[in-house]
Structure formats: structure tokens, C-alpha cells
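Aim 2, interim progress. The first record below pairs a target sequence with its C-alpha cells.
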Amino acid sequence: MAEAAAALDLSSFAYLSIPNRPGDAPRLIPNYPSAWTKHYLQHHFERFDPVIIQALAHPEPFEWGLGVGSSMPSEPQRELFEEAARFGIRYGFTIRIHDARGPAAAVTFATDERQPKFERCINENGRVLQLMAMYFHAHALRKFTPDRIVDGVALSPRELECLEWAAQGKTAWEIGHILGIARRTAAFHLDNAKAKLGVHSICQAVARLVVSNSTMQ
């Protein structure tokens, strides 16, 4: 992600996954300064970070920073912005991940100055950045998620991943494209998942996955 972002003249990014269950820690993958990310997590800034609050409330990507937008941040929020600015994080473009499979997540591309180059990059490559965020989330979710038991049946990580994408309406060809595998390989994993779950269709397999997720929550 860092290399892909750098190719678009975006030096900083952060992926944040907010857990569904209270008390669970958020998961953060950034290339921000480590001192800032450690400070952010230690003080649970995700609980009142205006960027995360807006991302959870509104589905569309947005720009942020002091002086951006019409709303006035609260005093704690303004202080958070000022602290982040000391680490070179002053403005950004945040993308909410639309994912019914797991925790809410967002990917942010940040910069130390709101320069025309940054604005131009966002305007010209907004859709590309959204795809990058979606793919990164898929891989991060797979890394974070341990081997899963779906309705009492153990699926391999790849079988689960393909089934989760199928639950979002993706075809085997689309799943293969997203995961960088052949369509027949994606179909093979879906067939294995169906066989293990003892069902005859992808719809039935997805239904068992949904029931299993609901039970876990």
C-alpha cells in the first residue's frame, strides 16, 4: 500500500478497523510515525476522532483537516488535529469501507500540507484510491481473522474469503479478479465450501455464513 500510494505522490496512509464488540481493541496499519500511532492507540483517540466519526456516519469519501468543511470541531477534537499536525498529518482523504462481513473500517491518505498537488491527486484518482482501500481491507481482514468455524464447519482461510465475497454478490470471476486468482480457482474454493457445509448452492452457503456471523455477534 505504501508503494502504491507513493506512486500517486501520497506519502502517508493508515488503515483502521473498528471492532464490533465493545472492549475489543481497534486494529491499525499505518505508515505514520510510530510515536504518533502508539500515542493514538494508547489514548483511544478513535473514540472521538472526528475523521473516524464522520467516516462511520457517512458512506462517501471526504477530505478533512483544520479549516476544511463547515463544522467546528470540539476542543478535544481540535487538540487531536493539532497533535497529529506535529507529526506531519494535517490534511487527508478518508474512505469508508462498505463491508457487511466484519468490523467497520476506513483507509486514510494524509499529507502535511494542503497543496494543489494533493487536491489534484484526490480529484483525479479518487476511484483508484477507493479500489486500493477495498483490496487492502480484504487482505487485512484475512490476516486478522483466525480460522473460522461457519455453522459448526471449519473452512480454510481461502474458502472463507471466497464465500465472504460471494456474500457481497461477487461472481467467481469477480472474486478471482479481486484476490488475484483464476476464476476456476475461486469456483473451486466455493465448491469446497458448499461441500463442507452440506449445501447445493452458493445462496445456501451464504445463508449459513450469515447465520454464523449473527450468532458470533
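The second target in this work package is listed in the same format:
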Amino acid sequence: MPRKRSQAFGRKPRTDALRNRKRILEAAKQAFTRDGANASLDEIANRAGVGAGTLYRHFPTRDALVKSVYETEVAKLAVAQHEFAKTMKPVEALRAWMRLFVDYVATKQIIAPALNTLVDGTSKLYEGSRAPIRGAIDALVKRAVANGDIRADLEPFDLLRALVGVSSVASSPDWPESARRLVDILISGSHPENRSRQSK
């Protein structure tokens, strides 16, 4: 019996630790969005409902926290790809994921000042995010092509380049809404019927 209680008690800190980590990351994302790279770590801990010691156990440095905020946004895209593929029709899964990608780009822009303060730069961080993002869009497009929703000669990453392009040239804060409308345009333009009509 004592051993069973010990094992039960041993599981709770791990659950709590994951919950604390999630709260810290969400509070940090909001703080970096609001206050930039110099957001107070103590204030982040306070908003997450944890002590400063708990924050530093998870993220020993500011750089570690900033990196984790960004990596969490990338991870959301990877997870969403699998969830959407399980629950949606191929073309709708692609549409939903591309809209989520717009949110990711918006978040990346907002926390960019904090990312740019990283001691070792952002090149490795961005390089590491490219594979999961490209893997997700490749899988979704492949599934849509197999279902006859998207033409087979489409380069999946071109869809993302178009969305990133909108974020790069837009000067108004409502550019994400324009990018979400562009998602529908891109998917409509990638339909096999459109190509056959143009060739007639």
C-alpha cells in the first residue's frame, strides 16, 4: 500500500509540471506580445500563477523561454495537421491548417522583437521549424491531391510562400484577415477543374 501511494503521488508532480509549463508559455506569449523582449519574467510567473522558482526550473534563461514560446507555436501546426486529417475531408483539412498557419505567422511577427534578442540568433531556430511545417503542408496537399481536390503539379510550399508574402507587404494590422481570404482563393485556384478550364 505505501508503495502504491508513493507511485500515485509521483504522478501528480509530472502532471502539475506540464500544466505549469503550459501556463508559463501562454503567459509569456502574451507578455512578449504586449511588452516585447524586455517583458518581466517575474510578471510572467505571476500571470501564470506560479512562483519565480517554478518558472526558472522550466526555463533557466530568458532565451530558453523565448525559444520555447516559438517552438510551441510550431508544434501546434504539427499536431493540427494530424488532428485535421483525422476529422476533416482532405481539402477542408488543408484549408483549416492554412488558416492556422496565418495565425502562426502573425504570432511570429508579434514576438519577433523578442526572438531577435536571442544570443545565438534565430537562424537555427527558424531552420528547425522548417521541416515540421513543410512536412505538414506536404502531407495535407498529398491527401487532397489523392482525393482529386488539388491538382497534382502543385508545389505545396508555394501556398505558404503566398501567405507569408501577404504578411511581408501588408502595412495594416488587419492583414491576417486578408491572408485568410487568400487561403480560399489559393485553394480555389489549385482545383483541377480550374486548370482544365484554362486549357480549353
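The chain has a mean pLDDT of 86. This observation will shape the mutagenesis plan for the next reporting period.
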